[in-house]
Structures are given as C-alpha cells and as structure tokens.
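Private note to self, pasted from the team thread so I don't lose it. Backbone tokens:
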C-alpha cells in the first residue's frame, strides 16, 4: 500500500520544519551582518612576516600578520594571526583585535590626560600629552595604534626593542595605565575641581569683579 504524503512536507504544503529552520538561519545571518556593518571599525596592517616550519621532506611556509583595529573614537585593539595564506592570516588577526579592544580616556578627544610609560618584554615606550596642532609624532607601529584610536596630538618614543610586536604590546600596556581626572576623583571621593584646582580663565574674571566692586 502506498503511503500518503505528509502534510506540509511537499512543495505545495510549504512551511515545513526545514523551511522554518532555514528561515531562522536567515534571520540570524541578517542580524549578524547588521551588527558588523554598524561597527565602523578601521583596521591597519602593522606588519606581516613569512615564517617557515621544517618538516620531513622540506619546509612549510606560512604567514604571520599583526593588525590593529579601532573606531577612531577612543577604542582600539590589536591581534595576531597565522595562516598558510596572507588574507586568511590578516582575517584571523583582525578578528582577534576586535575581541580585545580597550577604551582609552582622552583629553578634549585628541590627546592623553598625562604622560605614561609602558613596558612589555624588551620593549619600552614613553607617551606624552601634546598641545593642539602637534600631530602624531611616533614610529610606524605606534602611529598605527594612535591613528586607529583617533588620537590627534601625541608624542611617543620607543626606548627598547624595535620589534613591532613588542612596540605594539608596550604601547597598549601604556594606554591601559591611562586614566582621566573624573575617574581619579570618583575613586578618591572628591570633585574634579578639587584635583585640578580653579580654571585658568576664572582668575582674571575674579580680579575684574574685585576691581569693579
């Protein structure tokens, strides 16, 4: 005896279990694409190196990439990836950088609040706050970090290893030590004015009021 077709399982029925699963999959993919497009992240390739592994029968080559990613609004991250092909290595490094992003407080949205020193292994860097119009005065790996971070005025110097990995990691160690007057005031239970004192433009105004009064 021939079996009757299941309801909704054929082309005429529609709405089967497989269709519902595929529909849910499309919704997840569309939401994921919207989140990716909304990030507006900028990535820079710092360095790429060809490495060789000696195996039986010869050498096996692969590529190691170092990438920094930032939104140019105070968030930045770095990542390293290795693969047999250059595009795949860059993709791995970019994905890792997106997962390890940090937020750096900036004064007026352009420079650091204070000078800071960072160290990692043999790498040692010094970052200094700079007045408006100074620009980014830094080496290649550190410049890539500041550009993706969105910092416009900073002076940086590398005093240790010139290895790009050590320089980038030392720079991030320094950025993680940066803080803002608001955070320090909140930690100490004081006001920002108590730490920074009266504003410079307030003193002439008070003197003028005293002279007029």
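Design output:
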């Amino acid at each position: 005896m021939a079996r009757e077709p299941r309801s909704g399982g054929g082309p005429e029925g529609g709405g089967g279990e497989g269709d519902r699963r595929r529909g849910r999959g499309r919704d997840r993919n569309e939401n994921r694409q919207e989140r990716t497009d909304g990030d507006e992240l900028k990535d820079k390739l710092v360095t790429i190196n060809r490495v060789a592994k000696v195996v039986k029968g010869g050498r096996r080559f692969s590529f190691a990439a170092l990438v920094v990613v930032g939104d140019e609004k105070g968030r930045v991250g770095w990542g390293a990836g290795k693969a047999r092909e250059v595009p795949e290595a860059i993709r791995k490094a970019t994905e890792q950088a997106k997962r390890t992003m940090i937020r750096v407080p900036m004064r007026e949205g352009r420079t650091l609040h204070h000078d800071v020193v960072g160290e990692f292994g043999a790498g040692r860097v010094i970052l200094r706050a700079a007045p408006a119009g100074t620009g980014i005065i830094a080496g290649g790996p550190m410049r890539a970090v500041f550009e993706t971070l969105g910092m416009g005025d900073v002076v940086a110097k590398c005093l240790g290893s010139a290895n790009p990995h050590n320089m980038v990691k030392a720079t991030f160690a320094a950025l993680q030590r940066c803080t803002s007057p608001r955070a320090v005031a909140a930690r100490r239970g004081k006001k920002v004015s108590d730490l920074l004192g009266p504003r410079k433009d307030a003193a002439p105004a008070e003197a003028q009021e005293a002279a007029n009064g």
